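Kindly draft a sequence, keeping tokens residue-aligned:
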Amino acid sequence: QVQLVQSGGGLVQPGGSLRLSCAASGIIFRLKPMGWYRQAPGKERELVATITAGRITNYAESVKGRFTISRDNAKNTVYLQMNSLKVEDTAVYYCKVVGVDYWGEGTLVTVSS
């Protein structure tokens, strides 16, 4: 059974930082590309960042230079470091195994003063 358990998130002021974590089980994590997606209120879910098994990363234009995706294969965990957060980054963030329909439960990030 595949499980993606997320942690992190919460309320932060504009310009602040947060780190999201996603611990995976039930998959050979080191072989899987992983991704972070987000869904803001009233909007469709969108890609934020992905990382391949070979650690090649890809980012949405809106987060380039501010967010960093990384992975620790020893811990079966993928991370999303979010810096210089903006109000428009407010959303529910989901981790996902890229290419298959395995999603984390989602975690709310609220950027507000």
